[in-house]
Design goal:
The chain is mainly alpha-helical. It is built from 16 helices and 4 strands. Helix content is 55%, strand content 7%. The strands form 2 sheets. A two-stranded antiparallel sheet has the order 1-4. Strands 2-3 form a two-stranded antiparallel sheet. The structure holds fe (ii) ion (FE2) (2 copies).
Length: 336
């Protein structure tokens, strides 16, 4: 049973959100109030704003197998900023397995992208700015630190249909593929992770009714949708913290080697290596995600499509490496 917030705050109608205990380290002052579950139906104030949790308190919860604490929904933004800033600390901790570290960073980043892409409060500047860098840096650090994290991190991705989940998934997948292709440079991996996170940012400027339409798109709607790489490029172009490789990931991830892609119909080597990698994992994630208008397509079927397109539309080496990488991750998840 979830705790009843009104028991804690009888005079107000507050609501509370669970947050992972693992995000918190000892002696970090919190900018918000933190609550713990006192029993099945009551929340108790565990740490007022401005104070820090002690190592002892954290140990008691961990020993009692507590997984979540609670925050006031009204303080969610403060929590989100705190969790983003805590990513580097989480990565540096030696009491958490690598997979758990990725899970925590993934959840925080998903929330950042969700907030930025929220249609009622669209704020793409949040994504175009530096906030995404913490994710990209953390992901690159984890992958470089512990190669074995690759399989676990790919099997934990959520495959719901939201564009924001897809952007974080593509970021994770393209980083894994770059690593498998031999990229070991932390800064390059971080740049690729960051570009992957931005790759579909132009979709946020497309009518959501077109994005989520059930049934086939009209020619006009398809034309509109196919503008998203250009819209993304226009939005990001000229920004200080975006480099040309990232711009090409955004602009060229739907191009095909044989020239049948969009928006420009460029061929072969005119498509950057990073954009070619993005194309492979983008197709895989788009097919294996549930959509409002169809169920997720099975992993095996998505792999068959990649194999069919390898060499003609997609880079054959990348498609084959991705197949190997994701099959290992899926096999690992099945045997868990
Ligand atoms: Fe796209
Ligand atoms: Fe995409």
């Amino acid at each position: 049973m979830s705790p009843d917030p009104e028991t804690t705050q009888p005079s107000s109608r507050r609501s509370y959100l669970p947050v992972p205990l693992d995000v918190f380290c000892p002696d970090q002052p919190l900018p918000f109030s933190l609550y713990s579950s006192a029993d099945d139906s009551t929340l108790a104030l565990a740490c007022p704003p401005g104070e820090a949790l002690s190592a002892g308190a954290l140990k008691v919860w961990r020993d009692a197998a507590v997984r979540v604490l609670y925050i006031d929904t009204a303080e969610h933004r403060l929590y989100q900023q705190f969790a983003e800033a805590a990513m580097a600390d989480i990565i540096a901790r030696d009491d958490l397995p690598s997979r758990r570290k990725v899970e925590l960073c993934y959840a925080t980043t998903r929330e950042l992208v969700r907030e930025a892409c929220d249609s009622s409060n669209l704020n793409l500047e949040e994504l175009a700015g530096q906030r995404r860098e913490k994710w990209a840096d953390s992901l690159a650090t984890l992958v470089c630190q512990d190669e074995t994290v690759l399989d676990g991190m790919l099997s934990m991705l959520l495959h719901d249909y939201y564009t924001y989940t897809h952007m974080v998934n593509v970021s994770t997948m393209v980083t894994a593929l770059a690593y498998r292709m031999g990229q070991r440079d932390h800064d390059k991996l971080s740049m690729i992770a960051s570009g992957g996170l931005l790759h579909d940012i132009g979709k946020m400027r497309i009518d959501p009714d077109t994005l989520n339409k059930i049934g086939p798109l009209s020619e006009q709607e398809r034309d509109e949708l196919q503008q998203h790489p250009v819209l993304g490029l226009e939005f990001l172009h000229g920004r200080e913290n975006i480099n040309p490789q990232q711009l090409r990931m955004v602009h060229q991830h739907h191009e095909k080697l044989d020239g049948s892609g969009y928006p420009s119909g460029v061929v072969g080597g005119e498509i950057s290596t990073e954009a070619q990698m993005t194309a492979v994992v983008d197709i895989y994630d788009a097919m294996t995600c549930k959509r409002p208008y169809r169920d997720a397509i099975a992993h095996q079927q998505a792999i068959s499509v990649l194999t069919e397109q390898a060499g003609t539309k997609l880079n054959a080496e990348m498609a084959s490496l991705w197949k190997e990488t994701i099959e290992r991750a899926v096999a690992g998840a099945d045997s868990d």
